[in-house]
Amino acid sequence: MSELASEHCEACEPGTPAVSEEESAQLGARVPAWQREGNKRLRREFKFPNFRDAFGFVARVALVAESEGHHPDIELGWGRARFDLTTHAASGLTRNDFVMAAKIDRLAGEEDPP
User: Quick check: is 55 in a domain?
Assistant: First the structure.
């Protein structure tokens, strides 16, 4: 199991600082399939052979997100699911976003590199 995916999201209060651009780049290297928009947002789209599989994946992600208290924005369509991660309390990325990205990758059968 990957180190990042085994961490847990921590509650953030309004005004929590976003990670620096440098830290964002370092953490982003651990979830390389995710598109990083500076230190503001992570985005990834997954492809599936049909709606049922896309919906099932979204449902599994939703359960993990709820248990972590960190919820991605989700766009679901036929054969695809897109996830956007950001921490609203920080107006940008926090470690939680990278932890959640790694957890989503793990659900997809992928792991972040060491």
Answer: yes
